[in-house]
Amino acid sequence: MARLNVNPTRMELKKLKARLATAVRGHKLLKDKSDEMIRRFTVIIRQNKRLRDEVEEELAEILRQFSVARSVTPAYSAEAAFSMPTVAVTAECGMTSVMGVDVPEVKVVAEERAGGLPYAFSEITSEADYSVGRISALLPKLAELAQIEKTVRLLADEIERNKRRVNALEYIMIPQLQETIKYIRDKLDENERASIVRLMKVKNK
Fold first, then answer.
1. Which of 21, 94, 101, 158 could cross-link 105 (Cys pair, CB 3.0–4.6 Å)?
2. pTM for the model
């Protein structure tokens, strides 16, 4: 490991010892943070997997119902029935913090524009009623899934950056400081021995 290019003086030795202590403490804090972030990341990944499976299963069922409704309904009737929605959906977006990482927080708010479904019951089959009701109920889950997946990506990026910092401290900075401190100590000891030898020679003379 290459040492730092510094003058071998007691002042530099003191500074490097302080830097080494700070680096060791910083390494421990970053390592603890990294471990906790990985634990939280694992919990969120499991939550994401469970929610994604639920959403995909429900979407598949809803699409099957829509296909059945479309197969027994004329195309122009289906397009007219679903062209005027009765619900306006807005998303309230904010930010929250997970282990110092800002992640999105999304809440779906539905506003009723008119009562009932956007078509007459005589025009569309009951499969369409069932599908419309289920897809409306699924919107909050879709927003939650998007929020969790964005959180997962942001946490993964932060964990990777934190890992690089930990490795840089553990394998580069701390060994460099230790090597430089050892070099300065050896140099100071050598200078001290040389001074003692000179004093002894002067005394003998």
1. 94
2. 0.75
Instruction: Return the pLDDT at 176.
Output: 93
pLDDT beyond 80 at 84:
no
Domain definitions of the chain by residue range:
10-198
**Gap between the Cα atoms of 192 and 123, Å rounded:** 101
Q: Tell me how many degrees the CA angle 189-193-198 measures, rounded to the nearest 5.
A: 145
Rounded mean pLDDT, 62-79: 76
pLDDT tens sequence across 125-174: 677 777 777 777 788 888 889 999 999 999 999 999 999 999 999 999 99
For the chain, the helix, strand and coil percentages under 3-state DSSP, each to the nearest 5 = 70, 10, 15
Q: For residue 37, what are the contacts with CB-CB under 8 A and spacing of at least 6? A: 99, 101, 155, 158, 159, 162
The fold of the 10-198 domain, in CATH, is: Helix Hairpins (1.10.287)
Rg (CA), the chain: 34
> What is the amino acid identity at position 60?
A
Amino acid identity at 120: A
The label of the residue with tokens 């934190």 reads 162
Q: Find out whether 166 and 30 touch, Cβ atoms under 8 Å.
A: yes
